[in-house]
Amino acid sequence: KDFEKQLDDSTFLRCHQSFIVNIGTVTGAENDSFHIGEHVYRSLDPITDAHEKYDEYLRLQQEYDEEEED
Questions:
Q1: C-beta of residue 17 within 8 angstroms of C-beta of residue 32
Q2: What distance in Å separates the CA atoms of residue 38 and residue 21, rounded to the nearest whole number?
Q3: I need a surface site. Which of 12, 22, 36, 53 has the fewest CB within 10 A?
Q4: pLDDT tens digits for range 9-23
Q5: Pairing of strands 33-36, 12-16
Q6: How many CA atoms lie within 13 A of 47 on its CB side?
Q7: Cα–Cα distance for residue pair 22/47, rounded to 1 Å
Q8: What is the pTM of this model?
């Protein structure tokens, strides 16, 4: 928890009790897991805030990409 406080909240998310990931490296997500390349980080007790934060990240990334196209 001390280490987590030192991280930029907009860049990292806790996807599991034992894992904190850089949101920009996530390649996929399911209800109970996050994927980074071939690695799957599963949680027996999914952290819904992490999925909400990831969904928001994807939405903002899509908006940014659309602005860049214009």
A1: no
A2: 14
A3: 22
A4: 778 888 777 778 888
A5: unpaired
A6: 17
A7: 16
A8: 0.62
